[in-house]
Amino acid sequence: MEKIKKLKKILIREKLDGYLIPKNDEFFGEYIPEYNDRLNFISGFTGSYGLALILRSKNYLFVDGRYTLQANNQSGRNFKVITMPEKMPSDIFKGKRLSIGFDPNLFTEKSLMIFFGKNIKNFKPIFRNLIDEIWKRKITKNNNKFYLLPNKAVSQKYHLKINKILKYLKDNNSDYLFITASENNAWLLNIRGKDTKYAPIPYCYILIDKNKNIKFFCDLKKISSSIRRKFKMIKFFELKECSKALLEIKNKKFIIDFNSCSYFFKTIINENNKILKLKDPIYFLKAIKGNQEIQNIKKAHIYDGVALTKYLFWLKKNFHRKNINEISASQKLFKLRKRNKKFKFLSFPTISGTGPNGAIIHYKATKKTNRKLKKGDIYLVDSGAQYEFGTTDVTRTISLENSNKRIKNIFTRVLKGHIAVANFKIKKNTSGSEIDKRARKFLKQIGLNYAHGTGHGVGYFLNVHEGPQAISKNNKISLKKGMVVSNEPGYYEKDNFGIRIENLVYVKDKRKGMTFENLTMAPIEKDLIIKENLSKDEKKWLNNYHQTVFKNLIKSMNNIESSELKKACSAI
Q: I want to staple 330 with a disulfide (CB 3.0 to 4.6 A). Which of 303, 344, 350, 365 is the partner?
């Protein structure tokens, strides 16, 4: 590739052995503007997570198990694709001393250590991005202003949240909290923005000290008069003023976010101050949704359930009559969501995959890969939306008149895992790692598994992927009342099919202890279930779930859809 050749010429000029290109931009969000997607530019890989290492003699692309197939399909011709954590970037450096350049604004020290360990001693920060030297990109920044959420949309007013931060600083004998994760700033001040495509994120940094002095760094064009009036105690600055402000602080104790504070900012702070080994407390505070937020989230899921259910009925009725393909199918779902006035935009790119494309965990249909939906396939759709005061994420696997007994057996086992999660009795110190084991149990009985976590945290009209909680192998965070997570076991067979069943749930505190309560409202495909393979309790759960779906959706269905809903939600 001509792009890679140009980059390698620059490596020679800079006396470097290699250069690192991450997926993220300087704000470390999951989804970034196209003009900042340097990894896609150099490799062709479109997934949301990855790292390229360009050496003079070889090119590597590191991804996790969700993206192995996709990365090989998109980039395998020019890159050696490596799946983490089976093999890590540090493995490339065994017995070698290589000088590797990187943009210090695009990496954290933590991420470099995870990827490369002790090898980072030989890494060289380059204070201009080498990809930008060869990429004639069009930067189309928007001037959409940040805005305030109304009081009815939030469970806590901003000043109460600020007081919690001040208490945290006091309790930990710290002078400053530097908040670099934009979504955390959005939560703190109850504001939103339009700086990313799939989440209402306002790109900004906040520096707050123990005396309640608050500095807000952003593109000042985005600060509305209403925000200035609301936050009279906050001083607003341009983004470029942030490093200057940090340089002026000396001999203080800092708390930073090791996940989003860049190598560049951390180096500045560390030069004249002490960084405490503490986490940004907002991640945990943000993860626990209040009563008002839970009620709003429930409404959003009913809106979403109406659109998705109408879509599923339309799909099953028409797939063999019309020329429906993966792209046109996802467009239909988008149109149905858009009918609701509360709909803002999608919460992530819709995964619409039929047959073998369903096996690509984070598949995105293109003109080249676009398949027609046909009889005998199973079709997987993973999609979500941002509504006023609610974020959704749901996956359904649909039978297009498929009668394969093996597929039905696997689907039923995935469902059993899904129900096992939904019914899990949560104790005081229950973490996602314990629940993850339960979800995989029934697939493992026949020697099968899946290469992703069973669930991720979900934001409140923010990021569709949110921590610190998750249902995954290594997550040790205790689940608390008000946390929202996905429940999405699956199975994927290369070149054949993919299966996933995903609902969002939240942790509810009842008299008998904490349990999960479903948020997602859409029928689960009964045509792929082997009924006799479900226990009495599993059938009870499924029937109760469908009964709840029916009650919440029936009012929004026309006569034909009402009949379909009754059938889809009938007891098994």
A: 350
Alpha helices in 107-181 (DSSP H): 109-116, 130-134, 158-171
Measured CA to CA, the distance from residue 554 to residue 552 in angstroms comes to 6
235-251 tens-digit pLDDT: 999 999 999 999 999 99
Residue-wise pLDDT tens digits, 340-354: 999 999 999 999 999
Q: Which of 65-69, 188-192, 497-501, 546-550 has the lowest mean pLDDT?
A: 65-69
d(CA 445, CA 80): 33
Q: Which of 101, 457, 526, 57 is nearest to 286 (CA)?
A: 457
CB atoms within 10 A of CB 378: 25
Tokens read off for 323: 């020329």
Give strand pairing partners of 398. 379
Residue type, 259: N
Fold held by 147-286: Creatine Amidinohydrolase; Chain A, domain 1 (3.40.350)
The answer to whether 436 and 453 have CB atoms below 8 angstroms apart is yes
Beta pairing, strands 274-275 & 253-256: parallel
Cα distance between residue 303 and residue 54, in whole Å: 46
CATH architecture of 2-134: 3-Layer(aba) Sandwich (3.40)
What are the angstrom distances between the C-alpha of 83 and each of 24, 86, 339, 362?
Answer: 18, 6, 40, 15
Fold exhibited by the domain 288-568: Creatine Amidinohydrolase (3.90.230)
CA 477 – CA 283 distance, rounded (Å): 12
Same fold, 2-134 and 147-286: yes
pLDDT tens digit string along 395-451? 999 999 999 999 999 999 999 999 999 999 999 899 999 999 999 999 999 999 999
- Cβ burial of 162 (10 Å; 0-12, 13-18, 19+) is middle
Residue of 330, 362, 380 lying closest to 502 (CA atoms): 380
The pTM for the full model equals 0.93
Domain edges within the chain: 2-134, 147-286, 288-568
Check if the beta carbon of residue 470 is closer than 8 Å to that of residue 453: yes
Identify the pLDDT of residue 269: 98
Name residues whose C-beta falls within 8 Å of residue 548's C-beta, 6 or more positions apart in sequence: 518, 521
